[in-house]
Amino acid sequence: MWEPEFLxxxxxxxxSHPRVESLLIRKKLVDxxxxxxxxxxxxxxxxxxxxxxxxxxxxTGRPARRAIRAAAATLTLAEFPVISVNGNAxxxxxxxxxxxxxxxxxxxxxxxxxxxxxxxxxxxxxxxxCGAQKVLGxxxxxxxxxQGMDSxxxxxxxxxxxxxxxxxxxxxxGDRTAALKSAGKTVIAFDLNPLSRTAQTAHIxxxxxxxxxxxxxxxxxxxxxxxxxxxxHQIVSEFDNRSNLADSIAQIRGNLARRGGLA
Amino acid sequence: MWEPEFLxxxxxxxxSHPRVESLLIRKKLVDxxxxxxxxxxxxxxxxxxxxxxxxxxxxTGRPARRAIRAAAATLTLAEFPVISVNGNAxxxxxxxxxxxxxxxxxxxxxxxxxxxxxxxxxxxxxxxxCGAQKVLGxxxxxxxxxQGMDSxxxxxxxxxxxxxxxxxxxxxxGDRTAALKSAGKTVIAFDLNPLSRTAQTAHIxxxxxxxxxxxxxxxxxxxxxxxxxxxxHQIVSEFDNRSNLADSIAQIRGNLARRGGLA
Lengths: 263, 263
What we know:
The structure is a homodimer.
Chain A: E1 6-7, E2 12-13, H1 20-34, H2 40-55, H3 62-77, E3 81-85, H4 87-104, E4 107-110, H5 117-129, E5 135-136, E6 143-145, E7 155-157, E8 166-170, H6 174-182, E9 186-190, H7 197-201, E10 204-206, H8 210-223, H9 229-238, H10 241-259
Parallel strand pairs in A: 3-4, 3-8, 4-5, 8-9, 9-10
Antiparallel strand pairs in A: 1-2, 6-7
Helix pairs in contact in A: 1-2, 1-4, 3-8, 3-9, 3-10, 4-5, 4-8
Protein backbone atom coordinates (compact mmCIF):
# COMPACT_ATOMS: atom_id res chain seq x y z
CA MET A 1 0.00 0.00 0.00
CA TRP A 2 1.23 3.46 -0.78
CA GLU A 3 2.02 5.38 2.37
CA PRO A 4 1.80 9.14 2.27
CA GLU A 5 4.85 11.20 3.04
CA PHE A 6 4.98 14.68 4.51
CA LEU A 7 7.14 17.54 3.39
CA UNK A 8 8.92 19.74 5.86
CA UNK A 9 10.84 22.73 4.53
CA UNK A 10 13.26 20.64 2.54
CA UNK A 11 12.78 17.18 3.91
CA UNK A 12 10.29 14.41 3.41
CA UNK A 13 9.17 12.64 6.57
CA UNK A 14 8.52 9.01 5.67
CA UNK A 15 5.63 7.27 7.48
CA SER A 16 8.16 4.67 8.65
CA HIS A 17 10.37 7.20 10.48
CA PRO A 18 10.65 6.14 14.12
CA ARG A 19 9.84 9.69 15.21
CA VAL A 20 7.16 10.44 12.61
CA GLU A 21 4.54 11.59 15.18
CA SER A 22 6.91 14.07 16.75
CA LEU A 23 8.08 15.33 13.36
CA LEU A 24 4.51 15.86 12.16
CA ILE A 25 3.69 17.84 15.30
CA ARG A 26 6.85 19.89 14.71
CA LYS A 27 5.66 20.56 11.16
CA LYS A 28 2.34 21.90 12.52
CA LEU A 29 4.25 24.46 14.59
CA VAL A 30 6.53 25.51 11.75
CA ASP A 31 3.49 25.87 9.46
CA UNK A 32 1.78 27.81 12.28
CA UNK A 33 4.77 30.10 12.44
CA UNK A 34 4.64 30.69 8.68
CA UNK A 35 0.94 31.48 8.80
CA UNK A 36 1.33 33.98 11.66
CA UNK A 37 -0.19 31.89 14.46
CA UNK A 38 3.02 31.17 16.31
CA UNK A 39 5.65 33.55 17.68
CA UNK A 40 9.41 32.88 17.44
CA UNK A 41 9.35 32.27 21.16
CA UNK A 42 6.56 29.77 20.52
CA UNK A 43 8.95 27.67 18.45
CA UNK A 44 11.42 27.65 21.38
CA UNK A 45 8.61 26.67 23.76
CA UNK A 46 7.57 23.85 21.45
CA UNK A 47 11.17 22.58 21.44
CA UNK A 48 11.15 22.48 25.25
CA UNK A 49 7.87 20.57 25.15
CA UNK A 50 9.27 18.11 22.60
CA UNK A 51 12.16 17.28 24.90
CA UNK A 52 9.88 16.56 27.84
CA UNK A 53 7.50 14.54 25.67
CA UNK A 54 10.47 12.50 24.46
CA UNK A 55 11.43 11.86 28.08
CA UNK A 56 7.84 10.88 28.91
CA UNK A 57 8.05 8.26 26.17
CA UNK A 58 5.70 10.23 23.89
CA UNK A 59 2.63 8.56 25.30
CA THR A 60 -0.14 9.39 27.77
CA GLY A 61 0.93 7.83 31.03
CA ARG A 62 -1.17 6.88 34.03
CA PRO A 63 -0.63 10.17 35.88
CA ALA A 64 -1.90 12.06 32.81
CA ARG A 65 -4.94 9.73 32.60
CA ARG A 66 -5.76 10.48 36.24
CA ALA A 67 -5.37 14.26 35.75
CA ILE A 68 -7.56 14.13 32.64
CA ARG A 69 -10.30 12.36 34.60
CA ALA A 70 -10.15 14.91 37.43
CA ALA A 71 -10.20 17.73 34.85
CA ALA A 72 -13.24 16.20 33.15
CA ALA A 73 -15.11 16.08 36.47
CA THR A 74 -14.04 19.65 37.32
CA LEU A 75 -15.19 20.97 33.96
CA THR A 76 -18.51 19.14 34.22
CA LEU A 77 -19.13 20.70 37.65
CA ALA A 78 -18.00 24.17 36.54
CA GLU A 79 -20.51 27.02 36.26
CA PHE A 80 -18.52 29.12 33.85
CA PRO A 81 -15.49 27.34 32.37
CA VAL A 82 -13.19 29.11 29.88
CA ILE A 83 -10.44 27.66 27.69
CA SER A 84 -7.54 30.05 27.12
CA VAL A 85 -5.98 29.68 23.66
CA ASN A 86 -2.57 30.91 22.52
CA GLY A 87 -0.75 30.59 19.19
CA ASN A 88 0.92 27.27 19.90
CA ALA A 89 -2.29 25.68 21.14
CA UNK A 90 -4.14 26.89 18.03
CA UNK A 91 -1.41 25.61 15.71
CA UNK A 92 -1.23 22.23 17.45
CA UNK A 93 -4.88 21.37 18.04
CA UNK A 94 -7.44 24.06 17.17
CA UNK A 95 -10.04 21.45 16.16
CA UNK A 96 -9.60 19.47 19.38
CA UNK A 97 -9.93 22.64 21.49
CA UNK A 98 -13.11 23.72 19.70
CA UNK A 99 -14.58 20.27 20.19
CA UNK A 100 -13.48 20.31 23.85
CA UNK A 101 -15.17 23.68 24.35
CA UNK A 102 -18.42 22.27 22.96
CA UNK A 103 -18.18 19.11 25.01
CA UNK A 104 -17.40 21.07 28.19
CA UNK A 105 -19.77 23.96 27.52
CA UNK A 106 -16.72 26.21 27.87
CA UNK A 107 -16.00 29.52 26.18
CA UNK A 108 -12.84 30.05 24.14
CA UNK A 109 -10.65 33.08 24.85
CA UNK A 110 -7.54 34.13 22.95
CA UNK A 111 -4.72 35.07 25.26
CA UNK A 112 -1.22 35.79 24.07
CA UNK A 113 2.04 36.19 25.94
CA UNK A 114 3.55 38.16 23.08
CA UNK A 115 0.57 40.36 22.26
CA UNK A 116 -0.09 41.02 18.60
CA UNK A 117 -3.37 42.02 16.94
CA UNK A 118 -2.38 40.17 13.78
CA UNK A 119 -1.64 36.94 15.57
CA UNK A 120 -4.79 37.30 17.64
CA UNK A 121 -6.83 37.52 14.43
CA UNK A 122 -5.02 34.55 12.89
CA UNK A 123 -5.93 32.48 15.96
CA UNK A 124 -9.58 33.57 15.84
CA UNK A 125 -9.75 32.65 12.13
CA UNK A 126 -8.24 29.24 12.82
CA UNK A 127 -10.70 28.53 15.65
CA UNK A 128 -13.65 29.70 13.51
CA UNK A 129 -12.56 27.47 10.65
CA CYS A 130 -12.75 24.59 13.12
CA GLY A 131 -16.33 25.46 14.03
CA ALA A 132 -15.97 27.91 16.94
CA GLN A 133 -19.04 30.18 17.15
CA LYS A 134 -17.62 32.84 19.42
CA VAL A 135 -14.08 33.62 20.47
CA LEU A 136 -13.46 36.02 23.36
CA GLY A 137 -10.40 38.08 24.21
CA UNK A 138 -10.23 40.32 21.15
CA UNK A 139 -12.59 43.16 22.02
CA UNK A 140 -10.91 46.16 23.72
CA UNK A 141 -14.35 47.15 25.08
CA UNK A 142 -14.59 44.06 27.26
CA UNK A 143 -10.92 43.96 28.22
CA UNK A 144 -10.12 43.86 31.95
CA UNK A 145 -7.03 43.56 34.10
CA UNK A 146 -6.05 40.45 35.99
CA GLN A 147 -4.42 41.46 39.29
CA GLY A 148 -0.86 40.43 40.15
CA MET A 149 0.55 40.54 36.62
CA ASP A 150 2.79 43.08 34.94
CA SER A 151 2.88 41.85 31.39
CA UNK A 152 0.49 42.36 28.52
CA UNK A 153 -0.94 39.04 29.56
CA UNK A 154 -2.74 40.58 32.52
CA UNK A 155 -5.47 41.60 30.08
CA UNK A 156 -8.38 39.22 30.11
CA UNK A 157 -11.96 39.34 28.85
CA UNK A 158 -14.52 40.48 31.44
CA UNK A 159 -17.06 38.18 29.77
CA UNK A 160 -14.56 35.33 29.77
CA UNK A 161 -11.63 34.56 32.08
CA UNK A 162 -12.45 37.42 34.49
CA UNK A 163 -15.84 35.85 35.19
CA UNK A 164 -14.78 32.21 34.97
CA UNK A 165 -14.69 29.77 37.87
CA UNK A 166 -12.57 27.21 35.98
CA UNK A 167 -9.88 28.15 33.44
CA UNK A 168 -8.11 25.67 31.17
CA UNK A 169 -4.63 26.91 30.25
CA UNK A 170 -2.76 25.00 27.60
CA UNK A 171 0.95 25.82 27.53
CA UNK A 172 0.77 28.67 30.03
CA UNK A 173 3.55 30.61 31.78
CA GLY A 174 4.03 30.47 35.53
CA ASP A 175 3.19 34.09 36.34
CA ARG A 176 -0.18 33.91 34.75
CA THR A 177 -1.06 30.59 36.28
CA ALA A 178 -0.27 32.04 39.71
CA ALA A 179 -2.32 35.19 38.98
CA LEU A 180 -5.31 33.11 37.85
CA LYS A 181 -5.08 31.04 41.02
CA SER A 182 -4.82 34.18 43.18
CA ALA A 183 -7.91 35.51 41.44
CA GLY A 184 -9.78 32.49 42.79
CA LYS A 185 -9.97 30.49 39.57
CA THR A 186 -9.60 26.73 39.50
CA VAL A 187 -6.77 26.21 37.02
CA ILE A 188 -6.43 23.16 34.77
CA ALA A 189 -3.09 23.25 32.94
CA PHE A 190 -1.56 21.23 30.14
CA ASP A 191 2.19 21.20 30.72
CA LEU A 192 4.77 18.64 29.59
CA ASN A 193 7.26 19.78 32.24
CA PRO A 194 6.10 18.48 35.62
CA LEU A 195 8.67 20.70 37.38
CA SER A 196 7.51 23.98 35.83
CA ARG A 197 5.95 26.68 37.93
CA THR A 198 2.70 26.30 35.98
CA ALA A 199 2.65 22.56 36.64
CA GLN A 200 3.36 23.09 40.32
CA THR A 201 0.86 25.95 40.69
CA ALA A 202 -2.19 24.67 38.81
CA HIS A 203 -4.92 22.74 40.64
CA ILE A 204 -4.90 20.00 38.02
CA UNK A 205 -1.88 19.55 35.75
CA UNK A 206 -2.15 17.28 32.74
CA UNK A 207 1.47 16.31 32.01
CA UNK A 208 0.91 15.20 28.46
CA UNK A 209 1.17 16.42 24.92
CA UNK A 210 -1.92 18.54 24.28
CA UNK A 211 -2.29 16.94 20.84
CA UNK A 212 -3.04 13.65 22.60
CA UNK A 213 -4.63 14.94 25.82
CA UNK A 214 -7.21 17.45 24.49
CA UNK A 215 -9.14 14.71 22.70
CA UNK A 216 -8.90 12.38 25.70
CA UNK A 217 -10.29 15.11 27.94
CA UNK A 218 -13.28 15.67 25.63
CA UNK A 219 -13.90 11.91 25.57
CA UNK A 220 -13.76 11.68 29.37
CA UNK A 221 -16.29 14.50 29.71
CA UNK A 222 -18.64 12.57 27.45
CA UNK A 223 -18.02 9.38 29.45
CA UNK A 224 -18.93 10.92 32.83
CA UNK A 225 -21.85 12.99 31.50
CA UNK A 226 -24.45 10.82 33.23
CA UNK A 227 -22.85 10.75 36.68
CA UNK A 228 -24.32 12.79 39.54
CA UNK A 229 -22.56 15.68 41.25
CA UNK A 230 -21.61 13.63 44.31
CA UNK A 231 -19.63 11.15 42.21
CA UNK A 232 -17.98 13.99 40.30
CA HIS A 233 -17.01 15.78 43.51
CA GLN A 234 -15.49 12.54 44.74
CA ILE A 235 -13.37 12.17 41.58
CA VAL A 236 -12.10 15.72 42.10
CA SER A 237 -11.39 15.34 45.82
CA GLU A 238 -9.55 12.06 45.34
CA PHE A 239 -7.12 13.71 42.94
CA ASP A 240 -3.88 14.98 44.46
CA ASN A 241 -1.94 17.13 41.99
CA ARG A 242 1.30 17.11 43.96
CA SER A 243 1.56 13.34 44.21
CA ASN A 244 0.39 12.99 40.63
CA LEU A 245 3.22 15.29 39.48
CA ALA A 246 5.65 13.16 41.47
CA ASP A 247 4.37 10.16 39.48
CA SER A 248 5.06 11.98 36.19
CA ILE A 249 8.57 12.76 37.38
CA ALA A 250 9.00 9.09 38.27
CA GLN A 251 7.79 8.20 34.76
CA ILE A 252 10.56 10.38 33.25
CA ARG A 253 13.17 8.96 35.63
CA GLY A 254 12.14 5.44 34.68
CA ASN A 255 12.40 6.20 30.95
CA LEU A 256 15.83 7.76 31.43
CA ALA A 257 17.01 4.69 33.29
CA ARG A 258 15.66 2.30 30.66
CA ARG A 259 16.83 4.23 27.62
CA GLY A 260 20.18 5.00 29.17
CA GLY A 261 20.74 1.30 29.71
CA LEU A 262 20.73 1.77 33.48
CA ALA A 263 17.87 -0.61 34.21
CA MET B 1 25.16 49.99 41.31
CA TRP B 2 23.05 50.19 38.21
CA GLU B 3 22.56 46.80 36.71
CA PRO B 4 21.91 46.56 33.01
CA GLU B 5 18.74 44.97 31.77
CA PHE B 6 18.20 43.19 28.52
CA LEU B 7 15.32 43.61 26.15
CA UNK B 8 13.67 40.69 24.48
CA UNK B 9 10.96 41.38 21.93
CA UNK B 10 8.61 43.00 24.40
CA UNK B 11 10.04 42.10 27.73
CA UNK B 12 12.87 43.30 29.88
CA UNK B 13 14.92 40.59 31.54
CA UNK B 14 16.07 41.89 34.91
CA UNK B 15 19.54 40.81 36.09
CA SER B 16 17.87 39.43 39.20
CA HIS B 17 15.60 37.02 37.30
CA PRO B 18 16.28 33.48 38.56
CA ARG B 19 16.60 32.22 34.98
CA VAL B 20 18.48 35.23 33.57
CA GLU B 21 21.29 33.14 32.01
CA SER B 22 18.87 30.92 30.16
CA LEU B 23 16.79 33.90 29.02
CA LEU B 24 19.88 35.72 27.71
CA ILE B 25 20.91 32.63 25.74
CA ARG B 26 17.38 32.44 24.37
CA LYS B 27 17.65 36.06 23.32
CA LYS B 28 20.86 35.27 21.37
CA LEU B 29 18.97 32.66 19.37
CA VAL B 30 15.97 34.90 18.69
CA ASP B 31 18.35 37.69 17.61
CA UNK B 32 20.20 35.13 15.47
CA UNK B 33 16.91 34.18 13.88
CA UNK B 34 16.14 37.83 13.11
CA UNK B 35 19.57 38.36 11.57
CA UNK B 36 19.29 35.30 9.33
CA UNK B 37 21.76 33.03 11.18
CA UNK B 38 19.21 30.65 12.62
CA UNK B 39 16.49 28.60 10.90
CA UNK B 40 12.98 28.17 12.30
CA UNK B 41 13.91 24.59 13.06
CA UNK B 42 16.94 25.97 14.91
CA UNK B 43 14.61 27.69 17.37
CA UNK B 44 12.87 24.37 18.02
CA UNK B 45 16.24 22.66 18.49
CA UNK B 46 17.31 25.37 20.93
CA UNK B 47 14.11 24.76 22.91
CA UNK B 48 14.93 21.06 23.17
CA UNK B 49 18.42 21.95 24.35
CA UNK B 50 17.03 24.38 26.94
CA UNK B 51 14.90 21.62 28.45
CA UNK B 52 17.84 19.27 28.80
CA UNK B 53 20.06 22.02 30.19
CA UNK B 54 17.36 22.79 32.75
CA UNK B 55 17.31 19.12 33.73
CA UNK B 56 21.11 19.08 33.99
CA UNK B 57 20.85 21.95 36.48
CA UNK B 58 22.26 24.49 33.98
CA UNK B 59 25.82 23.81 35.03
CA THR B 60 28.83 21.89 33.77
CA GLY B 61 28.78 18.61 35.64
CA ARG B 62 31.60 16.17 36.26
CA PRO B 63 30.80 13.99 33.25
CA ALA B 64 31.04 17.07 31.00
CA ARG B 65 34.37 18.05 32.63
CA ARG B 66 35.76 14.60 31.86
CA ALA B 67 34.54 14.68 28.26
CA ILE B 68 36.03 18.17 27.79
CA ARG B 69 39.41 16.94 29.05
CA ALA B 70 39.35 13.92 26.70
CA ALA B 71 38.31 16.23 23.85
CA ALA B 72 41.19 18.61 24.64
CA ALA B 73 43.69 15.75 24.50
CA THR B 74 42.15 14.40 21.27
CA LEU B 75 42.29 17.81 19.60
CA THR B 76 45.89 18.35 20.74
CA LEU B 77 46.90 14.99 19.23
CA ALA B 78 44.93 15.58 16.01
CA GLU B 79 46.73 16.11 12.71
CA PHE B 80 43.89 17.88 10.97
CA PRO B 81 41.02 18.88 13.26
CA VAL B 82 37.97 20.71 11.89
CA ILE B 83 35.14 22.44 13.77
CA SER B 84 31.79 22.22 12.01
CA VAL B 85 29.64 25.33 12.55
CA ASN B 86 25.90 25.68 11.99
CA GLY B 87 23.53 28.62 12.54
CA ASN B 88 22.69 27.88 16.16
CA ALA B 89 26.35 27.43 17.10
CA UNK B 90 27.24 30.73 15.42
CA UNK B 91 24.38 32.56 17.14
CA UNK B 92 25.22 31.11 20.53
CA UNK B 93 29.02 31.33 20.65
CA UNK B 94 30.78 32.44 17.47
CA UNK B 95 33.57 34.16 19.43
CA UNK B 96 34.19 31.08 21.59
CA UNK B 97 34.34 28.83 18.52
CA UNK B 98 36.80 31.11 16.75
CA UNK B 99 38.97 31.20 19.83
CA UNK B 100 38.68 27.40 20.18
CA UNK B 101 39.76 26.96 16.56
CA UNK B 102 42.86 29.07 17.20
CA UNK B 103 43.67 27.27 20.44
CA UNK B 104 43.20 23.85 18.82
CA UNK B 105 44.77 24.72 15.46
CA UNK B 106 41.49 23.61 13.92
CA UNK B 107 39.80 24.85 10.75
CA UNK B 108 36.24 26.19 10.80
CA UNK B 109 33.71 24.81 8.32
CA UNK B 110 30.12 25.98 7.87
CA UNK B 111 27.72 23.09 7.61
CA UNK B 112 23.98 23.48 7.56
CA UNK B 113 21.16 21.00 7.93
CA UNK B 114 18.74 23.34 6.21
CA UNK B 115 21.00 24.54 3.40
CA UNK B 116 20.75 28.20 2.46
CA UNK B 117 23.35 30.37 0.74
CA UNK B 118 22.11 33.43 2.59
CA UNK B 119 22.38 31.81 5.99
CA UNK B 120 25.77 30.37 5.08
CA UNK B 121 27.02 33.88 4.31
CA UNK B 122 25.54 35.28 7.53
CA UNK B 123 27.44 32.63 9.50
CA UNK B 124 30.70 33.38 7.66
CA UNK B 125 30.29 37.10 8.38
CA UNK B 126 29.63 36.42 12.05
CA UNK B 127 32.71 34.19 12.37
CA UNK B 128 34.86 36.76 10.51
CA UNK B 129 33.66 39.52 12.81
CA CYS B 130 34.92 37.39 15.69
CA GLY B 131 38.38 37.13 14.13
CA ALA B 132 38.17 34.01 11.94
CA GLN B 133 40.70 34.21 9.10
CA LYS B 134 39.32 31.50 6.89
CA VAL B 135 35.98 29.72 6.90
CA LEU B 136 35.54 26.57 4.80
CA GLY B 137 32.38 24.97 3.45
CA UNK B 138 31.14 27.75 1.17
CA UNK B 139 33.04 27.12 -2.06
CA UNK B 140 31.18 24.89 -4.57
CA UNK B 141 34.56 24.12 -6.19
CA UNK B 142 35.87 22.32 -3.11
CA UNK B 143 32.57 20.66 -2.22
CA UNK B 144 32.60 16.88 -1.81
CA UNK B 145 30.14 14.19 -0.77
CA UNK B 146 30.21 12.39 2.52
CA GLN B 147 29.14 8.76 2.00
CA GLY B 148 26.11 7.31 3.77
CA MET B 149 24.00 10.49 3.82
CA ASP B 150 21.01 11.45 1.74
CA SER B 151 20.41 15.04 2.80
CA UNK B 152 22.01 18.27 1.67
CA UNK B 153 24.21 17.83 4.66
CA UNK B 154 26.28 15.16 2.93
CA UNK B 155 28.18 18.00 1.26
CA UNK B 156 31.45 18.74 3.01
CA UNK B 157 34.61 20.63 2.09
CA UNK B 158 37.36 18.52 0.57
CA UNK B 159 39.91 20.82 2.22
CA UNK B 160 38.05 20.57 5.51
CA UNK B 161 35.88 17.83 6.98
CA UNK B 162 36.60 15.38 4.12
CA UNK B 163 40.32 15.50 4.97
CA UNK B 164 39.96 15.82 8.75
CA UNK B 165 40.95 13.16 11.27
CA UNK B 166 39.03 14.81 14.11
CA UNK B 167 35.72 16.68 13.65
CA UNK B 168 34.03 18.76 16.34
CA UNK B 169 30.26 18.86 15.82
CA UNK B 170 28.28 21.26 17.94
CA UNK B 171 24.55 20.55 17.90
CA UNK B 172 24.68 17.89 15.20
CA UNK B 173 22.01 15.49 13.94
CA GLY B 174 22.37 11.74 14.34
CA ASP B 175 22.64 10.80 10.66
CA ARG B 176 25.59 13.03 10.07
CA THR B 177 27.39 11.98 13.20
CA ALA B 178 27.04 8.35 12.08
CA ALA B 179 28.27 9.20 8.57
CA LEU B 180 31.30 11.06 9.93
CA LYS B 181 32.14 8.09 12.13
CA SER B 182 31.73 5.66 9.21
CA ALA B 183 34.08 7.85 7.20
CA GLY B 184 36.75 7.15 9.81
CA LYS B 185 36.62 10.50 11.61
CA THR B 186 36.99 10.82 15.35
CA VAL B 187 33.84 12.73 16.34
CA ILE B 188 33.65 15.11 19.29
CA ALA B 189 30.04 16.24 19.83
CA PHE B 190 28.38 18.86 21.99
CA ASP B 191 24.91 17.56 22.80
CA LEU B 192 22.69 18.36 25.78
CA ASN B 193 20.64 15.20 25.30
CA PRO B 194 22.70 12.23 26.50
CA LEU B 195 20.17 9.82 24.92
CA SER B 196 20.34 11.29 21.41
CA ARG B 197 21.76 9.31 18.54
CA THR B 198 24.53 11.91 18.16
CA ALA B 199 25.44 11.57 21.83
CA GLN B 200 25.42 7.78 21.62
CA THR B 201 27.36 7.68 18.32
CA ALA B 202 30.15 10.21 18.86
CA HIS B 203 33.51 9.13 20.24
CA ILE B 204 33.46 11.90 22.83
CA UNK B 205 30.18 13.57 23.80
CA UNK B 206 30.25 16.75 25.84
CA UNK B 207 26.82 16.83 27.51
CA UNK B 208 26.83 20.52 28.32
CA UNK B 209 25.59 23.84 27.03
CA UNK B 210 28.03 24.88 24.29
CA UNK B 211 27.97 28.44 25.64
CA UNK B 212 29.70 27.13 28.77
CA UNK B 213 31.65 24.21 27.32
CA UNK B 214 33.36 25.80 24.29
CA UNK B 215 35.36 28.15 26.49
CA UNK B 216 36.21 25.38 28.95
CA UNK B 217 37.48 23.22 26.09
CA UNK B 218 39.76 26.00 24.83
CA UNK B 219 41.06 26.50 28.39
CA UNK B 220 41.75 22.76 28.78
CA UNK B 221 43.72 22.70 25.53
CA UNK B 222 45.89 25.53 26.85
CA UNK B 223 46.31 23.70 30.15
CA UNK B 224 47.58 20.46 28.62
CA UNK B 225 49.71 22.15 25.95
CA UNK B 226 52.97 21.16 27.61
CA UNK B 227 52.19 17.47 28.15
CA UNK B 228 53.81 14.82 25.98
CA UNK B 229 51.92 12.56 23.59
CA UNK B 230 52.04 9.55 25.90
CA UNK B 231 50.19 11.40 28.65
CA UNK B 232 47.65 12.73 26.14
CA HIS B 233 47.04 9.25 24.72
CA GLN B 234 46.47 8.02 28.24
CA ILE B 235 43.85 10.72 28.91
CA VAL B 236 42.06 9.68 25.71
CA SER B 237 42.22 5.93 26.40
CA GLU B 238 40.99 6.32 29.97
CA PHE B 239 37.84 8.06 28.73
CA ASP B 240 34.81 5.82 28.22
CA ASN B 241 32.02 7.68 26.42
CA ARG B 242 29.32 5.11 27.19
CA SER B 243 29.85 5.14 30.93
CA ASN B 244 30.30 8.91 30.87
CA LEU B 245 26.90 9.29 29.17
CA ALA B 246 25.39 7.05 31.83
CA ASP B 247 26.78 9.49 34.41
CA SER B 248 25.09 12.42 32.65
CA ILE B 249 21.80 10.50 32.66
CA ALA B 250 22.29 9.86 36.37
CA GLN B 251 22.89 13.62 36.83
CA ILE B 252 19.51 14.36 35.22
CA ARG B 253 17.76 11.66 37.22
CA GLY B 254 19.24 13.07 40.42
CA ASN B 255 18.07 16.59 39.57
CA LEU B 256 14.59 15.33 38.79
CA ALA B 257 14.41 13.53 42.11
CA ARG B 258 15.64 16.58 44.05
CA ARG B 259 13.52 19.14 42.26
CA GLY B 260 10.48 16.91 42.29
CA GLY B 261 10.76 16.61 46.03
CA LEU B 262 11.48 12.88 45.76
CA ALA B 263 14.84 12.93 47.51
